[in-house]
Amino acid sequence: MTIGDLTGQLQDFSAWKQQQLQIMEQLENWLKQEGLYTSQVQRALRYATLALHRDHVTVAVVGEFSRGKTELINALFFSDHKFRLLPTDAGRTTMCPTEIFQDNSEPPCLRLLPIETRLEEASLAELLENEPLWEKLPIDLDDSDQLIETLLKIREQKLVPREVATNMGLGDVSQIAEEVEAMVSVPAWRLARLNYRHPLLSQGLHVLDTPGLNAVSSEPELTYEMLPNAQARLFVVGADTGITQSDMEMWQQLIRQPGVRQRLGVMVVLNKADTLWDELRTEVEIQKIVERQCREVAEILNIDPNQVYAVSAQKGLVARVKDDYQLEQRSGIPELEKQLAKTLVENRQALIVEQSTEAVISALWNIEALVSSRLKRLRKQARELDELSTKSEAAIDQLLKQAQHDKARYQASIQAYKQSRAEFTAHGKILLDAISPSRLDTMIGEAYKRMTGAWTTIGLKEAMRQLFEDINQQMEIASNQTQEMRRLVRAIYRRFQSQHDMQLAEPQMLSLIGHQVELNLVHQESEIFRKSPLTTLTEQHFAVRRYFQTIVARVRKIFLQAHSDAKEWLETALDALTQEIHEHRTALSQQLADLKLSGRSRSMVRQRLASLDRECRKLEDQLETLQNTRKTLTKSVPEKDSKKLHLRVVSSRSA
Ligand SMILES: Nc1nc2c(ncn2[C@@H]2O[C@H](COP(=O)(O)OP(=O)(O)OP(=O)(O)O)[C@@H](O)[C@H]2O)c(=O)[nH]1
Ligand SMILES: [Mg+2]
Q1: What gap in Å lies between CA 315 and CA 333, rounded to an integer?
Q2: Is the Cβ atom of 92 under 6 angstroms away from ligand 1?
Q3: Edge-to-edge strands of the sheet including 183-187?
Q4: Partner of 639 at 20 to 30 A CA spacing, among 28, 238, 292, 542?
Q5: Using one digit for the tens of pLDDT, what is the confidence trace for 32-74?
Q6: Residue 253: which of 292, 210, 293 has the closest Cα?
Q7: Does residue 58 have its Cβ closer than 6 Å to ligand 1?
Q8: How far apart are CA 59 and CA 46, in angstroms?
Q9: Residue 46, SS3 per DSSP
């Protein structure tokens, strides 16, 4: 049976990542050896290598309960087991979000986070680190009964007093249990993490199964981080129910989130298509009905009809377990798998390139500019030295004077450079201070005090408004400083470019726009939260906690990122120029030495010319290697025998 599309694509992708890692490792060695290992490239390589090592792709499956999400996961990823891996059933089945992945550093197991942790303030990220809190159940891969039995835990519920359920923030999702009046039923676990073994998972695939109802939206980290960051999100609806009011609510809340930047990778699955397979109709008639329903779904959700896939997860699973090729094709699962594989890998790759490869490439551009500039300078020196041999002593004397004059002029401009650099550092301080973690902590601390001390909802809402006013003000200060500094850096660069004929790559600039856009989105969400009647109705303590978990946590993340970006930029923005200035000074001294030399000995001039020629050739080789490496790094499609090619490209020159 084929689960080939996904496996194949993921294998190619892993190969591509391995290849990238290899190129980067060789590049690092080569740069060190050639003395070209700048701090910018060092940072970019370290970041990219880490990102490539940690990388995985995530598929998240969301939708209302009983639409067949879990069955779809079984059919798409785990049909080679020949049994139903994850439990599915009519009614609510998956009680807590379930992550499935492979971590070879420990034996397979199921970890469960008790629902009671919702009573604590700790975030999910913190709880993930707190090992003893989790219940850990070992899994025997050779014993399918034990495996299935263990996985049934995901369905567990428990009875708690209604008040406790409310304190857990589950007041609206818990069902009233008939037996005990004041007790309500809540999921027993908050999150399940299944460390499993499977060829797809071993390629770095993570699968996130979620429960229906609004269980996901009660976990802010799931809603705002895990879901938007998944490379593919499958939204499952049922062909038997059509799109219901609650499907629509989940779509709005989880997929079209107002405060989250929309990313690619949403696929809508119209499941249970087999309920339309009416035996009294012809195949063509059935096909038409299915297509019509897909179009209707697309229309209601306001998406392209090509984003809707009609499948039967159940028939797909049965077909794959029983090796029934025809039924498998009819189930629509293979087509969905093909598109899913494409979406996953393309999105992931694009992100890796955007977030890390581009930084390495930009660092390489700067090194290229540096080497080109060295080459240009050496060639000029060689040319001048060559010309000197035909010149009279008086002419050489004249040139000597000119060179001394150049050096003096250069010395004067160094003073100006130092002044601008001091100005740059001063602006940098204001910038960093405006968005510093301690300033942020103060603002958040004050907001917390105001919110918890507020007697009325109006006071609470006012505190929320005030927090964003403070935050936006700080961002504004930072953004103004960035603009000032941009002007300053440009001016310094221009001066050295025009006055001293330096060849400089465009200086890297800092932009906080991306962070400001993110912040605006969170602000919008904060406004929705602030104005929602629910906030007025919710007990103040819970409203504040929820506000901190959903809004403030994200503000903190954006701020910290902006701060670290700014800090990194400040440390490296003038590096290229400083390096150039240093080399320029050496070149000027060298020029003077050459002039003096030319007046003395012909054979020494010849020796010097030969050595210049060797140096030029070395620089030309460096340039070629840099250009080739840049090209290979930007290649997105893995090529079968490209591994050898890279090895040669990077190492031959250094041999
Ligand atoms: N006819 C038909 N039934 C299906 C199909 N897929 C799932 N089902 C049935 O629908 C019911 C719900 O399936 P699940 O996979 O548990 O649904 P879910 O969306 O994971 O539900 P929750 O875990 O409660 O959120 C089960 O009884 C499945 O057998 C399908 O393609 N066709
Ligand atoms: Mg389920």
Answers
A1: 9
A2: yes
A3: 157-161, 183-187, 175-176
A4: 28
A5: 999 999 888 998 999 889 888 877 888 999 999 899 999 999 9
A6: 210
A7: no
A8: 27
A9: helix
